[in-house]
Each structure stands twice: as C-alpha cells, then as structure tokens.
Amino acid sequence: MKLHESQGGTHPQGQIGFSRVAICGGTHGNELSGVYLVREMQKAERKAKERGNDMEVITVLSNPRAVQRGLRYIDTDLNRCFTHAMLSGSNTNDAPYEIIRSRELNALLGPKGSRDAVDLVCDLHNTTANMGLCLISYSDSDWLCLHVFRHLQRQMPDVPTRFIHFNATNKESYSLDSVGKHGFALEAGPQPHGVMRSNIYTTMKMGVEHVLDWVCLFNSGFVFEGGSVDVYTVVRNIDYPRDRDTHNITAAVHPQLQDRDFCLLYPEDPLFLTLSGETLRYKGKEPLYPFFINECAYYEKGIAVSLARKRRVAIPAIRVQTEQEQQAKKDECTSEEEEE
Amino acid sequence: RPALPVHRSARRVAIFGGTHGNEMSGVMLVNLWVQNNTEVQRKGVEVQPFITNPKAVEKCTRYVDTDLNRAFTPENLSTLGGGDLPYEVRRAQEINRMFGPKGSPEAYDVIFDLHNTTSNMGCTLLLESSKDHFNLQMMNYIQASVSNSNLYCVCCFFAGLEVGPQPQGVLRSNIFESMRDILKHALDFIELFNAGMEFPPCTVEVFRLSERIDYPRDDNGNIIAMVHPNLQDCDWEPLNPGDPMFQTFDGKTIHYQGSGTVYPTFINEAAYYEKQQAFATTRRESLVASAIRKA
C-alpha cells in the first residue's frame, strides 16, 4: 500500500508529545490483572514518576466498589458510560454508581474532547477468550496507537499480540479510553474473571512497561520508521441461539471453534453445538476472523463471538514535534484568531 | 458363599444444578433434564433434576446472600426466622425438607451436586466418607466406563461432582459433555445395582484432603503473590518440598516448604480467594471397596 505524499515516505510526521499518561485498571472489578498491576504501580509511585522526560503517569483504579466486591460492575457497565450525553447531566440521588464514577473519571482524566484531557489512556482488561494480548481502539489511523502496537509486537515476540479496530464512525465512543486525547484498551486472555493467572499478569505488566517505554522514547525525539501492521476491524457479532420464551442459551460454542480466536472462520464451519448434539454452522458468505469467542461478560450483551476483517495498514514515520514546530503551530493559531 | 455386604436399593436419586449460580454446566444440564428427562430415566429409580439456587442462577452469581454449599449446618437447618433469614439459609431448609432430612430414612439415596471450577481438575468426584463402599464402587464403575482418564476421587467434607477448568459464567462444550457423560455412567451403575448385580471388591485411588494453603498476604490482608506458573494448572501432579509455589508481583519465587510430597488440587479456584485458599493439598491413598450387592 502506497503512502500518500502528506504522510511523507521517509519524512516523519511531527506529533505532539505525551506529557500525561493514564494507566487504568479495575474498570471491570473482576478483571484482576489490571487491578493488581495498578495497585503495584501505585505502591511504587515514585519509581514510575522517575521515568523523566517530564512525563506524568497517572494510575487509576477505575471502579473501586466493583473491585472490592469482585464484580464486573455494581449497577451498570462502567465501560459504556463515557458518551458525551452520559458524561454531561447532573448527578441525581438515584443515579447508577457507574454514571457518578464515569463523571468523576472524566473530571480526573478529561474532560473528554477538551485540551485538558490526558494525552493517553491505557485501560487494562482481561477476557475469558483465548485472545492473547490485544490493543483495542476506535481508530485505525491514530498513528501513535499503531506505533505503540508495533512496538509491543516487536518487544514481546513470544506473546500473540493483535490490533482490534472498532469502527465507531456511525456511533459515538462510549468507553474509558475515549476520554484521553489518545486511548486504547489493553486486553489479555484467557483468564477467568475473579482469577489471577501469573502468566497473564506478567504479559500485562510487560505490555504496560513497553507502552510507557515507547512514550518516553517518543518524547525524547526518537524517529519511528514507517511500516505496516495488521489491523482487525470488527464487522459483526453473532449471538448464541436462544430459547424463544426464556431467552436462555440453547447451545454452546462448538468445540472446534472454542479457543480458536483469530483462526479464520470459513462459511459452513461449525459455530455452535446444541444440547441435543446438533452442529450449527457459520452461514456468512465471507471468511472472517473470530475473537471474543465465549467471553463470559458478553452473554448478557448477546455476543457469542465477534467477527473481523484483517487488512494491512501502512503507518507513516513519526516523531515528536520539535519546539520550533510547536511554536510555528501556535503562531499559526494566533494569526488565525486575529484574522477572525 | 460368603455373605456380601448389602446395601439398600438406590430408589430415589437427585441431580442438583446451580448450587452456585454461575457454574454453568450443572445449570444447563438440570434445566435440560427438567424440560425433558428422557436421558436420565433408568428402570427402577426415580431421578429428580433440581435447581437448588434459582435466584443465584437468574443473576448468574455464585450466591445471593451466602454460599449455599456451606449453608447446610445443623444450626441453619433448625433455626427459625422465616423471611429474615439469608436467602440461601431458607433454601437449605427447603432442600433439606424436600430431599432429606439428611441421615433419615426418608432422605434421597444418592444426590449428585454438580459444580464447576476454574481449576484444572478434570472430573472430580468428591466423597464425604472414605468408608462409603457404594460410592467407591460407583467411582470404580465410572472410571472403567468413561473414555477420558481425567477422573479423580477426593475425600473431602462435602459431596459433589466437580468439573473444570471452566470460568464462572461460561459454558464450555467439552466440560458440559464430560459432566453429562459421568452422570450417564453413574446412573447406569445405579440401575445395574438396583437390578441385583454384584460388584466384586475393587481398589480405588483417592486423594485425601490434607491442608488449605492461602496466598501470601501483607499486613492489610492483600494478596502479594500469585500461583507460580509451574504450579498453575498442575492439579493432581506431585508437589515436592522445594518446588515453586507462588510468584510475587516482582517475579520472586516462593517455594513449597512442606515435609513431604503432596498432590495439590483446587489450584487457583476463583471462589476461594475470599475463603483464603490458593490451593488444597491432598495425599494419595488406595482404598479397597468391599464387594456390594443390593439387599
């Protein structure tokens, strides 16, 4: 795929530096890697600040009440509470706990969409699906996130690492990572909710360290060469077959699909095995990549498996804006205002 | 002919699902059999599938007020208080009325309480007593009949059938079918026994529950280490003194300091974090089950 002239072949794009990075854990209170990693980072707070380059790392336990009770959420899923509509509006007495909390987080890390928002939100999650490490984003053209992803892949060659793109052009972003100027979720699995697997914790810890290392490198003026990465863009979700009256599920993910996240699913491949032993097959026309296969929390959201298309995305070379570039930008803005 | 120990027929059998509302295999199996019990029908025995904790099942949570599987204490079963009692205590009283009272002649003969675990335990039959020759013979029969060798027997303080690994709230097809298969053979055994078949003496390998080992914690009670990657998923494999047991958050290894080899189980079960248990140790024993025949 050819790079456009404006993305400049070998001429790196200047991007604004990251002065504030937020690492969030416990957005879902029973996804333990992030809970414990944030706790450990908070214990070693001074160490984290010593990274230098004037970068501030903010660690947040997003949903403390849910963490305390070992639940995904108290009243409603916190990670769906960050649309502009939900963030504005006043707290009433009977407002769900997570709505009150999302507004607190927005005040701390945002406000979403404003100049004061943190530069990067990295929100830590676990999944019961066999997904390895995934970086999940609303954009497939945020070059900073894609460069971070490529860095993770290169630094952690033993961990299957993938980039998932949720195309949110038709609807608004609703998750915690949308509060920052840049943001993504870091998802590690498989791990049962309420359980801490040491290998998954280590993966998450290494992932966060590499993210912060990349930001430091970036801030210091390092030029990251262009290249290309694989991006999985979500196309659709498939729900379980359900009983018409009770809405209870009537089949399990087929043993030939279970744990085979990111293995291409072809038309007529097995999807579900009913309780009476019947195989239900994928009826789509296009082979797609399945993921979030049998994620516990998605039963109530009506998702047995998500399906994505994979494509190669070119990323331009980038580096942090120099002081002259920043000044030039400021002068540009000032003169525009004067013209008005 | 020497007299064989005799045992009364197993005329009434119950299959409990949803004792923990988020352990999905039992919930699905019992719901299936409540709707259509053809699969569990056997000659000469009445089989009752039953959801023990419907509120917890509805919310897909382990319990509503308190763990039902710890609620069957003599105090709980005899206490008055009606609607003020915790939900699961009321349920325990109701279940004891319907299927017990425990230890009395009216009680059901066999109860299969279906559970899942996040631990890599395969299929585990939990027995309350090592002297229960009927259950030991049933175990032996199932072991000879099932295709997979992932079947274990534990002498514990509660009875049940535990299949894992499966996350809470998740239904895995292979786990579901394993549990279904075990129950099929268990019911076959009961049918054969009721029909008068003699089961000669046999030897059954059991694991006797020894100790519960908690996570290392700090002074505030917070966990400071995780099950070591070498121990994770190694249920039923020998753990020797000096073997890695836990790994701290900064990567240091904590070793098992016991006096001899043990066989760990319930390694990293989600529900046991709050019960202060990272895993349990067991000792391996060979038990001889006497021959049995219906009275």
Automatic annotation (TrEMBL), chain B:
- Amino-acid positions noted as binding Zn(2+) in the UniProt annotation, renumbered to this chain: 20, 23, 115
Q: Which residues form the active site?
A: 162
Listed cofactors: Zn(2+)
Q: Which residues form the AstE/AspA barrel-sandwich hybrid domain?
A: 203-283
Q: Which GO terms describe its molecular function?
A: aspartoacylase activity; hydrolase activity, acting on ester bonds; metal ion binding
Instruction: Give the chief site where it resides.
Output: cytoplasm
Protein name per Swiss-Prot or TrEMBL:
Aspartoacylase
Organism of derivation: Gouania willdenowi (Blunt-snouted clingfish)
- The gene behind this protein is aspa
